[in-house]
């Protein structure tokens, strides 16, 4: 963690500490800091529609999205608006990036706009950290390349916690394109920090080397991985990040790694099914599972996304808003 990110001794309600200026990843967060953000999100889950406090009134939030997104952009926009922020969206297609502007120039431009908080999605791993180091306001990572997607991991942890009563000691299987997935990386970091038992499953071509060092158990056999699972989290085949053939065919992939209702009922009948979206129905997940009323938590994940993003926007702007106890 670079020194610029660290403000030791910043007190927060309850005497806990959240010393980070930015949220660029789950990496570097202590377990109690993750729990703190989840606790903060809880208050927004049940907030009366139309009536949450306008804590960000008068602040400008820029959502700078250099890569396509539907749910994450919308979720950050709704979260900011519910808190009363002036939200501005910048899409790469309309920006100077297409004209060859460097990342540093983009950062300087965003900074000159005097935003109070910037949310960034970028196709390059590490781009968000680079921009965060160049601007004066808090920066939230909405997904950078294959690196991290911290708010996705937080919303997933919140969904598990609310559905299963906790994360610790729950057996979570993450199956799919682990090699290209920032969601997998952030989830592995968050779930292991919260003491879940994490199993990862993928064909060997899509399994990152030495993944055990993250404290997870790798499987290439999906049926074996699913045995006794409390949560099965499916990931999309990220074909846009693949150069060449990582899987023999989509049909073959579905046969070995697709979550069908039959497989779920045979291997982990009580498990909660999750997917960050967008889903490839019939590839990594069948509609019968994705739309399963009791088992699927997929729409709940989307709902939790707004609450988690409200919490992150609120917490990261407290110092700027002069909230008492936030040095
Ligand atoms: C993911 C992403 O963009 O990283 N989606 C999301 O944020 N909900 C996963 C993906 O693209 O497959």
Automatic annotation (TrEMBL):
Keywords: Pyrimidine biosynthesis, Transferase. It comes from the Bacteria. It catalyses: carbamoyl phosphate + L-aspartate = N-carbamoyl-L-aspartate + phosphate + H(+). The keyword Thylakoid does not apply. The keyword Transferase applies. InterPro entries: Asp/Orn_carbamoyltranf_P-bd, Asp/Orn_carbamoylTrfase, Asp/Orn_carbamoylTrfase_sf, Asp_carbamoyltransf, Asp_carbamoyltransf_Asp/Orn-bd. Pfam families: OTCace, OTCace_N. GO terms for molecular function: aspartate carbamoyltransferase activity. Carbamoyl phosphate binds at residues 71-72, 121, 149, 152, 277-278. Transmembrane segments: none annotated. Pathway: Pyrimidine metabolism; UMP biosynthesis via de novo pathway; (S)-dihydroorotate from bicarbonate: step 2/3. Its EC number is 2.1.3.2. L-aspartate binds at residues 99, 182, 236. Gene3D superfamilies: Aspartate/ornithine carbamoyltransferase (3.40.50.1370). Residues 21-161 form the Aspartate/ornithine carbamoyltransferase carbamoyl-P binding domain. Residues 170-315 form the Aspartate/ornithine carbamoyltransferase Asp/Orn-binding domain. Reversibly catalyzes the transfer of the carbamoyl group from carbamoyl phosphate (CP) to the N(epsilon) atom of ornithine (ORN) to produce L-citrulline. Belongs to the aspartate/ornithine carbamoyltransferase superfamily. ATCase family. Heterododecamer (2C3:3R2) of six catalytic PyrB chains organized as two trimers (C3), and six regulatory PyrI chains organized as three dimers (R2). This is Aspartate carbamoyltransferase.
